[in-house]
């Protein structure tokens, strides 16, 4: 399995090696635990959760009972157990290991395939919350969670889809899982969520795709699924609050020729040049890095970028940007001004980090 790297960035407080998600992908999107409080607990449930949160012995006993209730013949008992386990895993990190060790993972996964949307949503979200613990990720994946999570991406409620995307992101942080998730059919569904989801759905989908597309086969799957169209549209819409995230996803894709071709076909070059003209400092820097990858081995693409008017805003950036932005802009200007008939001699390592 080949993991490809580009340039190094620090984004929202965390470092990204080669523009790929490092250990803490929450820096890219707030894909942490579930953020919804749409299922209020009854008073008796609240008291039990309070006791569990203040007393380790009570917590252990409650968790064992709830795991047992997941296998109940009563749908209501299953619903209550799934919800309480979800909340216990959300609100107290140490409970995530306790719940997994108590045998909750497989019965929770079975709920993800339930026809009851409430059960499915709580099963997905409980698995998401458990996956926040690194020790649980391998167990969750080996217990067969990937395919049910992909099913939730296809058939679930809006919240189930969003939380399934987050759970797949967490599992993808184990490198071996990236191929399995890609083969499961997740990528076209994540691309669809990126295109049609609400704001949170778009954020969660972009985060998961960013992680998954650090390997070549998943880049190809994403391009074949039509990812370039929503990426270009989101980068062109400065009101979407998705310009940065979409550009970061694009940055991991453009190392493959198929992505470069798709970007040009979707009208991406004018959008990237516009970002250099009017985008934020961060947006300008990431776009310069993208354009360098696109142009470094292609006279045709260099010509297109130059004719689109990229050189004047690049000159402005080289004069007024940060030191890093200035260096990157100067390198790209030098590349664009090379004779059109001569292949560029610059390499990715020539682009300053």
UniProtKB/TrEMBL annotation:
Question: Which InterPro entries does its entry note?
Answer: ARM-like (IPR011989), ARM-type_fold (IPR016024), ARM_PUB (IPR058678), Armadillo (IPR000225)
Keyword hit for Magnesium: no
Which windows of the sequence hold ARM repeats? 103-145
UniProt-listed Gene3D superfamilies: Leucine-rich Repeat Variant (1.25.10.10)
The protein's GO terms of the molecular function aspect are: ubiquitin protein ligase activity
Query: Pfam families of this UniProt entry?
Result: ARM_PUB
Q: What class of enzyme is it?
A: transferase
Q: In which pathway does it act?
A: Protein modification; protein ubiquitination
| E.C. number | 2.3.2.27
Q: What does this protein do?
A: Functions as an E3 ubiquitin ligase.
* Protein name stated in the entry: RING-type E3 ubiquitin transferase
Q: Which organism is it from?
A: Hibiscus trionum
């Amino acid at each position: 399995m080949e993991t490809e790297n580009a340039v190094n960035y620090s984004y929202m407080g965390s470092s990204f090696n080669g523009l790929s998600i490092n250990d803490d992908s929450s820096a890219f999107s707030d894909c942490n635990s579930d953020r919804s409080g749409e299922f209020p607990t009854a008073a008796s449930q609240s008291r039990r959760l309070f006791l569990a949160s203040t007393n380790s012995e009570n917590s252990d006993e409650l968790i064992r009972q709830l795991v047992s209730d997941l296998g109940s013949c009563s749908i209501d008992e299953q619903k209550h157990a799934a919800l309480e386990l979800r909340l216990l895993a959300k609100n107290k990190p140490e409970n995530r290991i306790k719940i997994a060790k108590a045998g909750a993972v497989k019965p929770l996964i079975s709920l993800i395939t339930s026809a009851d949307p409430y059960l499915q949503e709580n099963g997905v979200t409980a698995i998401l919350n458990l996956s926040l613990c690194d020790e649980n990720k391998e167990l969750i994946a080996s217990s067969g969670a990937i395919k049910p999570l992909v099913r939730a991406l296809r058939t679930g409620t809006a919240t189930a889809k969003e939380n399934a995307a987050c759970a797949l992101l967490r599992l993808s942080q184990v490198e071996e899982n990236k191929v399995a998730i890609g083969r499961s059919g997740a990528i076209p569904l994540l691309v669809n969520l990126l295109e049609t989801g609400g704001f949170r759905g778009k954020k969660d989908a972009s985060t998961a795709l960013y992680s998954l597309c650090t390997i070549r086969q998943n880049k190809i799957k994403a391009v074949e699924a039509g990812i370039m169209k929503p990426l270009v549209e989101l980068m062109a819409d400065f009101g979407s609050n998705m310009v940065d995230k979409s550009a970061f996803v694009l940055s991991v894709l453009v190392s493959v020729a198929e992505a470069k071709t798709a970007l040009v076909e979707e009208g991406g070059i004018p959008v990237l040049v516009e970002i250099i003209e009017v985008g934020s400092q961060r947006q300008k820097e990431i776009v310069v890095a993208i354009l360098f990858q696109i142009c470094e081995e292609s006279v045709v693409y260099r010509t297109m970028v130059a004719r689109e008017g990229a050189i004047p805003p690049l000159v402005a950036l080289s004069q007024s940007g940060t030191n890093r932005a200035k260096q990157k802009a100067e390198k790209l200007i030098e590349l664009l001004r090379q004779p059109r008939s001569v292949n560029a001699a610059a390499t990715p390592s020539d682009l300053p980090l």
